[in-house]
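Listing 4. Sequential folding, example run.
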Amino acid sequence: MASNFGLKSLAILALTLEICVQGSLGGITCENLNKDTCAFAVSSSGKRCVLEKHVNRSGEEAYVCRTSEIEADKVTDWVESDHCIEACGLDRKSLGISSDSLLDSGFTRKLCSTQCYNGCLNIIDLYFNLAAGEGVYFFQNCVKHKGEMRGEKWHRSEALVWWHQGQYQG
């Protein structure tokens, strides 16, 4: 009877460990991403990935993907799509995370375009938070450019509802 209980306990422990290992192996770890997938990705822990460039002693450039301390809002295990990178005017080889690009009106125009603003909420979340850190309300920045984007429909409120309900598919 005691050995039967021990076998059941061992089986339960083995099953639990298998589930835990599968869950941990399936997520995105920034340090495992290459330079073509790192920028704008989000790890399984919800931290944003950042691409860094190092120059070796020999002068050779090496790119490294690292986990930043910046948390994404309601996003985990995310590698941004090529569609969103293009629609938002981004570059896969962007180094670091910075709000400097928000000073470029051409970049802001692309970021505020319907394709980016309504369809690439991971990117919008990132730049919304970067702008807020600088004391700027991102949506007002897009409204400023809205006159230049007549004919485009904004469905930001619908997209945000999908985002917060976890239904957004990017």
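-- end of first protein; second protein begins --
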Amino acid sequence: MGEIESDDWSNGEDGTTVQISVKTIGPAPSACLSVPSRIKVQDLRKLIARNAHLPIENLRLIMCGKVLHDSRNGQDEFIQLKNGDSLIAAVKPKPPVKYNRDGLHEDDEEELFQLPQLTGRWKRTLLSFLRDKLRLPDMLLIAIFSISLKAWAIIIMWFVLAPVAHRWDLGPIYILATGFAIIFLNLGHRRQGDMSAYSIFNEDFTELPGTLNADRLDRDIRAGQF
């Protein structure tokens, strides 16, 4: 592999370059490469793909057992390199034809949950912390970010007030009040003319067609339908 030209790639902050070794999985021998000490992962992949004549769309770089990604949460990823660092270049095999026919993409297995492009920066930072530092699964991340800020504020306030209710021996009442609040807040609103599923809330206690109750069972039994 060859040297990086300064007009093609961004050098490190101090303008220094380092020597790294790249091992391509397969019979190819290891090769040395001169790169800036700080470089975008995307640029590094392009350089290795160009020099080794590898397909960049399927090329994956591995360093210290971790796969290097071009971007994270919509922001380009940089890597800090030192003299003597080693990278592994692996070409990801293409999936069987049936997977392409079903519309599955190769990167679907890497990150199942991604934030929209217009999401605020603080949400991207929180997602990066939960995924990279705490290593939460994607299903849990989906549940966390699907709840609105108002709902999170209510949940936090509930846990703050719970010890106060317990200290005043109001724990059971607090739980019951929470249950009734959840019920009433999720009743929704009926439009004019709509009938309730509970006949007690309807005018003249009118039941919905097909309602099964004791009178209906009695009529069916007398009519010999059982």
